[in-house]
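INPUT
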Amino acid sequence: MSKKHMLYSIIAGVIILVAYIAYFHGSGQSYNAGFIVYICLFLIAGQGWNLLGGYIGEVSFGHAVFFGIGAYTIALPTGYGLNIPMPLLIILSMVTSGLFAWAISYPLLRIKGMNFLIGTFGLGIIFLNAFTSSQLLFASQGTFLPFVQPSVLYPVIIGITIAVVIFVSVLVKSSTGLSFKAVRDVPEAAQMIGINLYRTKTKALVIGAMITGLAGAMYALYSMHITPSATFDTSISNDILLGSYIGGCGTVLGPVIGGTILIIIQEAARSTITVTGGHNLVLGIILVLVMMTMKQGIWSAIRTGIDKICGKLSSVKKQRR
Amino acid sequence: MSVFQYKNVYAGYSKEMDVLHGISFSLEEDSRIALIGANGAGKSTIMKTISGLVPLREGEILYQGERIDTLWPHEIVRKGIIQVPEEGGTFPNLTIEENLNISCINKKAKSHFEANRDMVYDMFAPLKEKRHMMADSLSGGQRKMLSIGKAIMGEPEILLLDDISMGLAPKVVEDLYRQLKELVNHLKKPVLVVEQIMEIALQFADYGHVVQQGRIVLSGTSEELLNSEEVKRSYIGG
Amino acid sequence: MSMVSFLQTLLGGIGTGTVYALLGLSCSLILGKLQICSVVHGDLAILAGYICYQVFSAWGIDPFITLVILIPIFFGLGYFIQKVFMKPFMKLETWKGRYEGQVMVSWGIGMCIMAMEYILFSGKDKTLNVSYRNATVSLGDLSIPVVHIIAFILTIGLLIAIELLLKKTSLGIKIQACSADATTARLTGIPVNKMCAVAFGISSSLAAVAGLIFSLSNALSPSDGFDLTFLGWVAVILGTMGNLKGAVIAGFLMGIIHALTIYFWIPNMAEATIYIVLIIILIFRPNGLFGREISKRRQAA
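OUTPUT
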């Protein structure tokens, strides 16, 4: 990303943030404002997943683990009555997620492909079961968090979302990001030019886990009450990766678009099909349709569409000359 | 009319880039034609288009007056257009006998099953010895034998040989071609052979086409080509 | 603890393991042999369970009779899924798009199936109350549920049947050929796409059997499908890809782990322990428990 693009995206981000704050303070529709923030939580987590799943190509079905660790790191001290300042806790939750990712990277990244997918899914199950059955961690009742004024919290979350998107787009254009893609597309050649496969994967896993942990922490503050089934459940992992797949993994904007579409559709389906679990029908159909018609996701379909139109325009120009 | 016609074919592996740029040739009854050329000239791609593994972008392939380029690979094989591919060609997880058995796919092949199998075992003694063993116990040369044997079991109407010599010792290659020559004399069917080693191919075939960068640049009888300076140049020049 | 209760736990574990073994067998056939990846099998199994439940509670027809009719129907369903949804991804390299695409598409189908179950049967647990559900056979001090005995016999029988199908029939040999080298299979005149669809059909039928066995000893809930799929996969990976026998043995092993965890440790951690064992085993034997056995056999041949 060139400096000019960088500047543009920061300006765009600031405008979005200001617009949101204005909207939030101007109208009393707190449901809508909260919903936008809810989407943002999954966008942050989606960026974290995408580093490993999209750029390295190791599909993880268990990113809820990092999400949940982030959430619990911020919730447990309050649950035990400790008084630690909130900003410190937020940073701490990122650090714990990252540390945990680093700790499990040794066994986890030695398994690949399908095994990795199932291993991470299993990790999610292990955490869900462990947190549900441990009284020390408040078991299935979960724990409560202090109330943070939405007028402060919501803009902060949106600001973090914008910052994460900009950070990831800078990261993937840097040499680190290029080495991610090299490991995904041509692992042998990547090793030939001295890229350490294992270390590169670890980097993506840890950075991704920190971002996902941040999303988890924000979720905890947002919902004020966390339980294992709200943080470690497979449905969280699923929502995180489905957004990326629908939008197009391995791109920065793909998960943003996909995640937004996914959460909006999910809510819409929930309110129209009122039977428990019935909304999955809409999700399933959309997933099948997107994967069958545009294998790279919606964003890349849009991009090829734009390219085609641009190509036609330029050819028309040439003919005129 | 020719049995088999390959008409003005354009094809490639991706949409943007063609490997073949308008290739045409035809096979008569009992003709043996060699396609020769440097590495990457498009010879193997021609073979793959005939067997339906690579789709055409333009042009057509006719067998007995019918278009076969729209058929599935297995339908083309069932018509008797059988290829000995350059890579693979055998199933390592099946026994040699099973390998031969499942190659017997159309009615005609099934009616001559016993005779064909005996012919394969007579031609390639090592296969008979190991008939109940897995094919992955075979050496490279023996695998090629099995691959050819599988083609025989299918009762070829047209036999396509793609780079038999690849990865084999010169002595083995020589023996294989000697046996193939006997086989072809016996079959009396058209044969199309693609070969890296020009001399072997032209000794085997009666007529040859030189392929260069996806085009046929020169055609002639084997003697003409063997003595042609241009052919040598095209090999060195690529 | 006494020896008897330990043995009782082991036997119960094997009984639970039949579901995993059958799902493992079903996934191993397509994932291990033909590199078709599907996460729809658990949902198919639960769907079969629900159909058996519905037919039984509406007309009182024994679920095993329903199963006989379900097997061809599920074969057709599987054939259709492979032909329409999985085939477009078959030409891609395995991990560069094929698996990912197939996982996502089959997951979407699975979600639709699950949602239909939610809509038709609601999310409440349903129990298939056949007369022999709680019947047991006494063997000395041990008592074994009849359902487990039937399930065990079915599992072993189906394993032998599938092995025979692959080794002795021309259909099976053709499927084996496709599993070794799809391009060569095409050049030998084998319709690869059709073989894949047939294999998918067979594996869907096996999933239906697994679903019935599951519904005979568990309460049905639509969300079980997703978890069952993954447990089936665990059996495939533990038992080494493509090794049908291995998948079945791994399935039994998982059942035993499940039962022992409930007995000795925290019942809530039963499923988690299976995954802990999986991750540990994958670190030391990336090819699964029976990985070396295969390579040895190859060398001997």
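end of record. The radius of gyration of chain A is 20 Å.
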